[in-house]
Description:
The complex is a heterotetramer, with 2 copies of chain A and 2 copies of chain C. Chain A contains 12 helices and 12 strands. Chain A is α/β, with parallel strands linked by helices.
Amino acid sequence: MKKLIYLDNAATTKTAPEVMEAMIPYFTEYYGNPSSVYDFAGISKKALDESRETIANALHAKENEIYFTAGGSEADNWALKATAEAYAAKGKHIITTKIEHHAILHTGEYLEKLGYEVTYLDVDEFGVVKLDQLKKAIRPDTILISVMFANNEIGTIQPIKEIGEIAHEQGILFHTDAVQAFGQVPIDVDEYHIDMLSASGHKLNGPKGIGFLYIRKGVKIRSFVHGGAQERKRRAGTENVPGIVGLGKAVELAVNTMEERTAKEKELRDYLIDRVLKEVPYTRLNGHRTNRLPNNANFSFQFVEGESLLIMLDMDGICGSSGSACTSGSLDPSHVLLAIGLPHEIAHGSLRLTLSAETTKEDIDFVVESIKKIVTKLRSMSPLYED
Amino acid sequence: MKKLIYLDNAATTKTAPEVMEAMIPYFTEYYGNPSSVYDFAGISKKALDESRETIANALHAKENEIYFTAGGSEADNWALKATAEAYAAKGKHIITTKIEHHAILHTGEYLEKLGYEVTYLDVDEFGVVKLDQLKKAIRPDTILISVMFANNEIGTIQPIKEIGEIAHEQGILFHTDAVQAFGQVPIDVDEYHIDMLSASGHKLNGPKGIGFLYIRKGVKIRSFVHGGAQERKRRAGTENVPGIVGLGKAVELAVNTMEERTAKEKELRDYLIDRVLKEVPYTRLNGHRTNRLPNNANFSFQFVEGESLLIMLDMDGICGSSGSACTSGSLDPSHVLLAIGLPHEIAHGSLRLTLSAETTKEDIDFVVESIKKIVTKLRSMSPLYED
Amino acid sequence: MYSEKVMDHFQNPRNVGEIENASGVGTVGNAKCGDIMRMYLDIDDDGIIRDCKFKTFGCGAAVATSSMATELVKGKTVQEALEITNKAVMEALDGLPPVKVHCSLLAEEAIHAALWDYAQKHDIKIEGLEKPKSDISEEEDEEDY
Amino acid sequence: MYSEKVMDHFQNPRNVGEIENASGVGTVGNAKCGDIMRMYLDIDDDGIIRDCKFKTFGCGAAVATSSMATELVKGKTVQEALEITNKAVMEALDGLPPVKVHCSLLAEEAIHAALWDYAQKHDIKIEGLEKPKSDISEEEDEEDY
Ligand SMILES: Cc1ncc(COP(=O)(O)O)c(C=O)c1O
Ligand SMILES: Cc1ncc(COP(=O)(O)O)c(C=O)c1O
Ligand code: FES
Ligand code: FES
């Protein structure tokens, strides 16, 4: 196989070798069900506890506030649906944003069908939520504010602390989808006034199919998956022990390497952004110039369509994405790019490149040359482009 | 570590080495997100398709009727909640049984809170659903019948085909929780008139944290996890590719070895049952003598309490269970044993031993001797026992 | 799951058995978990507990707390025995998992029941001893989600 | 995702470009996906399509179907060109993923639009040709769960 330059780490990541090593014994050796009585199962139970502790520490939370799920989507669904249910007597109004992941947006639409009202906040041209609009949107029957920590497409980081303060001043629960942010930026649930937080293992070099929802003690959320007494009776199902162990290891690695890793990623990211903006005409950077995820670059190339661009990059061995991977089945232009004000046809020509710790300067140089070549070719084929 | 005799395969199983081998590349090599456009992700996509095909073939179903979930509990929750929602206009009555797993029972209770009516059918002394009672329970507003294929505690296999026929004659959807049966007994969704079927990977030497719901084409079930367009838009969340690959491999192995493996298990199981019943006084076999899972034995030892028994077996290196592992956090005696008519204190002294392909006759001999010794000791301590 | 002390008292329970013509016998049960504990006391004329035996149908914690309770009770006066709380039994066992706390209550109540029986039989009033409940189950304070 | 034929026509699209003073030019778009295709026809006095070129802003399938459509159209009579359906284009490409079927409709419609323009300019009536829609998007028939 030709060399692969994988720049789609916001879609998913490689499971780290250390994570594999940590997980494997729990498949074939210590495979006991943590709920069982015998000592052999105690090994599994202990592994769960340790992972929970690692994750709690990473968030400055308590162990019994971490609830494992099958991933970010389940955590998002749980947070919204089961607080909506639990607090319905207080009110049926929820505030979120126009740039959330579909796991939040489609859950919001579902709740609307059930009789809840959902306000979708605008964002500015950089993708930042407007705090004054948030304040105005709050009503006496508002029960939940859900704003993502960082956007998966354009990488913009939200003023989470300020949002948390506004929520808590009004006695409203605050949930944040931190699937993209967790492991990339430091998070302190107390300092940021976060009541619930979603995360997913495979976004931080952990395994797929595992994630968690942080639930602050005292939040009266219902169960989402009913059944056995796992996860303090809040989330049924035999625990994915290897997945949980892997997630714990991934979080440990992410926290330990965060400073160095993200500093390096930022440098490469900025180098990429600077070269592309300088060397490819009719190009813009989407998202905030500085308040963005360390590994995220997102461009729009005018007169160029995204899928064609991706396929041509793929032919050069470069993996990138156009909009969110999860929605590539859909033909709609990215709701995030529309929300920051891009016209339809420019929203279409977006390219997201998300770096990893393994990305090198040589990779970036190769990618920039490839982009230049491809954009020129596609523009020459475009009926929209006149040179 | 001392030799371990693991006889709790109904709680969970060891991941098979072949399954590990199949999965590992999808963690570290082919880690792409199946939704992505580039070729590299096509490898993941293809792996999903292959697993889906294997599973569909095992059930005589079609590929696009298999929807991956995080396990059996999610599949059960999904099947009940999302059909209840979709068919609410037709009616709000659901029929299930008293011996279902908590993933069904607690979901039923949840639906009752939402205004649905749930009938919990009795079973006879062997744990078999009474078909005439089922027929009488059907009402014009019955939308769903959910009866487990085989019970997780006492191993009794239900007359699924007859139940399916009754359901379909009346135009009612039929769901079966086959978490324990799948891989142990042949299943044909058409022959048995099954509309939905839940299964879980870790019960058949596959990984934990993955399962599926079979949904017959045409069943108008809603989404349970909303978000991205995965699983034909019906179950959001980045696919657990390694888990799905592992599940596919486990199903392949289970199907290929079923005849030989279960014949051997049945023989050992019957040897175990015969010896225990003969050599330990005041003992009964719970469940049906022949219509039971090939690897399941479940005894009640009068005057003996289950947990004490388990701990003492554990000291001899034997892993067994008393009631369902998922509920061992609870102190209630098994609802299944109560449903087959056991009095409280006998229900308490139950022991479930579930064999695997690796179980040997020597294991069984050792276990029988251990049981005899322990039961005698515990009875001598029991205020209920007078010799 | 259990501490080493609990496991020791479970594997090698002290004072299992019955006392014929015991000064007092108490049997208590917990309807919720279905477990039953019977305690036998041999009390001399000075009100000193000379011997104590038990029989228990119950979980590991029930057996261990029975065993520990008999140990704690032996040699004590009736009044001292009355003051042995479930907390004391638990502490002597290096603790119990939260879900097993009620098992130690069974031990406390079994002592009380045996003392009550002794008081009834000997027509004594023991200060601070109330008629024991035959069922010690309490409301679980766990939340329902 | 795409067949080899599609990938070939995407990587090496035939007949990209414009025709100056073309006999007919047609531009169609799909509002749903935002893609746009422009087709140029050079038709001689006998009604034979001598040359055909295209410009496309669109996905891989859009580019490939444009390319294939121009190949199919060349050398055909106007009447024959009119009968080239999106199905024929797809078949010539060894198929398209279901979600990409509409892209081939874009190609069919672009041919029609160019022929319509030719007919208008030369004041001809082409049997069976209707005024093309400028937007070919249709209702998706996918279920909503
Ligand atoms: C019959 C039955 N249904 C459902 C489940 C739940 O499956 P899981 O724990 O994989 O979610 C189990 C096992 O725990 C089971 O035995
Ligand atoms: C911001 C955000 N939220 C939620 C999710 C869903 O996570 P998962 O696919 O692990 O369910 C994703 C990624 O797909 C994401 O980027
Ligand atoms: S569980 Fe009943 S005494 Fe321990
Ligand atoms: S997706 Fe629009 S033409 Fe293919």
